[in-house]
Amino acid sequence: MAPTSSADYLTQRSQLIAQDRSLRADNAIAKDLSEDERKADEILRRIRTREAQSVWSAENSTKHRHGSQQLFPGMEFLTARETIVETKLFDILSKMPKGGLLHAHLGAMVRADVLLELALSQPAMHVRVPEVISKATIDSVLPQFRGLPQSQWTTNESITDPAYVPNSWVPMKNARDNFSAVLGGPEGFDRWITSAMTINPAEAYGTHNSTIEIWKKFSSTFGVSEGLIFFEPVLREYIRAYFLSSIDDGISYLETRMLFHAKTILDAKGEETMDHKGFLELYDSVVEDVKAKMKEEGREDEFVGSKVKLSTHFKSFIQCSLRATQIIYTVLRILTPEDLEWYLEDCIEMKKKFPHLIAGFDFVGHEDTLRPLIDYAEPLLRFVARQKELGISIPFMFHAGETLGDGTMADMNLYDAILLGTKRIGHGFSLIKHPKLLEICREREICVEVCPISNEILRLTGSMPMHPLPAIMNQGVRVALCSDDPAIFGNMGLSFDFYQVFVASEVNGLATLRTLVWDSIKYSSLEGQQEEEAFAKLERRWPVFIRYILDTYGKFEA
Amino acid sequence: MAPTSSADYLTQRSQLIAQDRSLRADNAIAKDLSEDERKADEILRRIRTREAQSVWSAENSTKHRHGSQQLFPGMEFLTARETIVETKLFDILSKMPKGGLLHAHLGAMVRADVLLELALSQPAMHVRVPEVISKATIDSVLPQFRGLPQSQWTTNESITDPAYVPNSWVPMKNARDNFSAVLGGPEGFDRWITSAMTINPAEAYGTHNSTIEIWKKFSSTFGVSEGLIFFEPVLREYIRAYFLSSIDDGISYLETRMLFHAKTILDAKGEETMDHKGFLELYDSVVEDVKAKMKEEGREDEFVGSKVKLSTHFKSFIQCSLRATQIIYTVLRILTPEDLEWYLEDCIEMKKKFPHLIAGFDFVGHEDTLRPLIDYAEPLLRFVARQKELGISIPFMFHAGETLGDGTMADMNLYDAILLGTKRIGHGFSLIKHPKLLEICREREICVEVCPISNEILRLTGSMPMHPLPAIMNQGVRVALCSDDPAIFGNMGLSFDFYQVFVASEVNGLATLRTLVWDSIKYSSLEGQQEEEAFAKLERRWPVFIRYILDTYGKFEA
């Protein structure tokens, strides 16, 4: 019906907008906001609008410009980061209880500087390079690290000395202490390693500005960091640091993808004796350690699984909680279907031994260039059948559609992920191209683990405003925001991802944030009492967060 | 139903893919391809796959790299252009009959070098600048052109001479002939003007790499070119050049947006006497001129509206045809609603005088920063009512959603465009965010004028693979590919836009191309016999195009 009057027009307009947004997951909560939440929502929106002008406007570009980047809300993260942390909106979001982190790769969860410190404290940790490091080679040669058995420790002094024998091991501490002054000395060593384990703006937005090129750099970082991380004494502290820093950012539950490709990890003696069972025992024991630490701090009631009745006393929302943490068993999508069989069996064995830890199964690696899911359909169908026989459940949590391709192998992975019954979808960047799959995801509540900053740095999107997230949300698909590989991208925690998403849309409000947080628990692997406890905890922490917004910004931003 | 066997799995997979693509406009044609078309489709797909490796692969990036751009199919147009024109796929697409061009702004339809030549031939054409042009000012100062009345002609010699009096008029020919040798002499003048009328890669992908910044440059180009174009003797030749170059690219119908903001145009004497009626008479007379020229060349049967019975003899598909051309009356979205009234009345007057020419009404200008459609809802509703009274039809062809915004003024223009009954949508870049609007567009067959290269250069998308077009097409929304402002972007004709779209998707095939071409007539303003003639013409030209593919590439690419 064509409108016949202005009043009629405005009525029809409101109805059309409401219809258009009727599938959104945040509708129910938006209608149900408390009075305080409404006020907090208004404050958030007002700050967003003001900071779009005061911080992110084009007029500030010349002042803040890095290279040729322009300032705008949701701009490229790597050049925006230092500005983001100065904003009021970031302060607020960093205080928000985040719920669960559902898409995170263990190999990239701790800041490079922290990892370096952890590794340097281990005399067993050695480094080698295929060429002497000099001005000519420092930008192209990558270091390899390894915790050696004591019998193989060396007294070599330097990897920058022209006398260095290529590929010979040098104690990491020596290599650092004696790093050539011309290359910056010990700090130069740190910069070099950090640069090899992270993506910098010049790479993402310049030399490697395409999905293919940036994946080369991205993949290479794991080759450097894995030698530092996967040595038992470092690994233990690394996992602890990952847990504690996540708690600090308001994350109360972690569902971690662990790459089980290697069949063993180096034990404390530098021997390859720690099998997958050994790793899971270690992981479990760190969970217990962190529980103990939290108990010392009077926060023991904040763990899922602890039988202690939840305390009604809640000191401060800044006292974040680690509820529980689970592992998604992942393998590389370079395996042959035949080789996959061993891992599927191993995954089942681990699930039997650690039923509380193993939460799912997934493949990792560049979808555009490695094997598509359909290659593995047969063994995966048998894997599902076998679980039924055994009465266990290891749901698929497949990466799928992390691509710009249309009708390519990587894009088509979405069909297979859904046909194979995936519980969630990792990334699902190209899902917006698929009307039927959007409908299925909406109806079956297949939650999409969206990793905004990862997608942008890996060049699937030029910036947040170009990201398909708003389109996915308007289709009523459930979403959990995730950080993916924050140690490489610099988006530690979840505050940065929430920030980028929140500033790039005028539709998103407090109800959206609340929905994303709650859904990160709802679509996690938590069930029954654990899930109830997680929700109860959020219900108690949320009003404290709202109170922070009102108390801190209510007056000044009125 | 979960699949129970591999065969079952593959069946379910095919069904799911078919369901997912069931809304696509090219389905019907895909089922109906002739044997030759099937072969041509295979050839096209094979060439696309091969050239993705031989031309667009990352391995070629170092050889072809411009700045820090990487090579990939659908990469940034301005750095890809010189590579595109060397490909086999481009050769094929440049031979394709394109149907209609439905979104094209008259002010940016002729190559800068051609426009310069046209203007230079006019002794009345003068130029002035606010500062002497020197090495220090050439990159920032913009020239202003004007065809002066003879009484005001000057004998000034140069705009680079330090003695130049700022803002004084210099004959364009003098300014060019005497352009300082330090600045490149006459060729330096041409480079300077061309640069002021076009967007170069350093701007789009560097200094102006955001929607706000690039729109500043984009808008400024019109200020330079309008002085050259809108002077009767130039304008006449300009329109002719636009028609002929479009015909050369296989475009057989033009629906041109003309900005009627200025109430007069300079006549041949340099006086502001040519009103909107005068302009339409001029436009009409060029149509007649071109008809006459075509008649001379034995191609008079290729015009819509000519009463001559269509010849069944068809010499060569390279002999393209101009069927007809119509005007969409546009105004700037800076008008107050009150000021709009005059233009709406004027538009009605022009429609009465030139019923065959006036095809629609639209607003132009940056949606992110200028007035939203809702500001004009009242006068526009009255405009619709008035048309009914008068028994005329001037459908809206609104620009809407040419933005990265989510829930912003520009994004919300889509609601208003649809509520006001728009016949087509210009750009509709943000349409993919709106499930209900996608449904309405699909059901009411509101065709979206998608301008791929324009969107990319104006930084709505980083490259073609990031563009929402595949998502829009899978939603069953009808699309016409358009070039928007090719003189500024360098995408003359439609071959480049078809190229970028075709290489960025594995789903698109010959059926997609054919659908896009046919839909550009179906959703044009052609009706009745004119429309039938246009389709008949396409039906005759298409097999010649298919034959070209088979004959030229059938053997070598088998």
TrEMBL record, chains A, B:
Q: Where is the Adenosine deaminase domain?
A: 326-533
Q: Which reaction does it catalyse?
A: adenosine + H2O + H(+) = inosine + NH4(+)
Q: Where in the cell is it found?
A: Secreted
Q: Which InterPro entries match?
A: A_deaminase_dom, Ado/ade_deaminase, Metal_Hydrolase
Query: What are the required cofactors?
Result: Zn(2+)
GO molecular function per UniProt: adenosine deaminase activity; metal ion binding
Keywords, ordered alphabetically: Hydrolase, Metal-binding, Secreted, Signal
State the Pfam families in the record: A_deaminase (PF00962)
> What protein family does this chain belong to?
Belongs to the metallo-dependent hydrolases superfamily. Adenosine and AMP deaminases family. ADGF subfamily.
Q: What is this protein called?
A: adenosine deaminase
- Give the organism, scientific name: Trametes cubensis
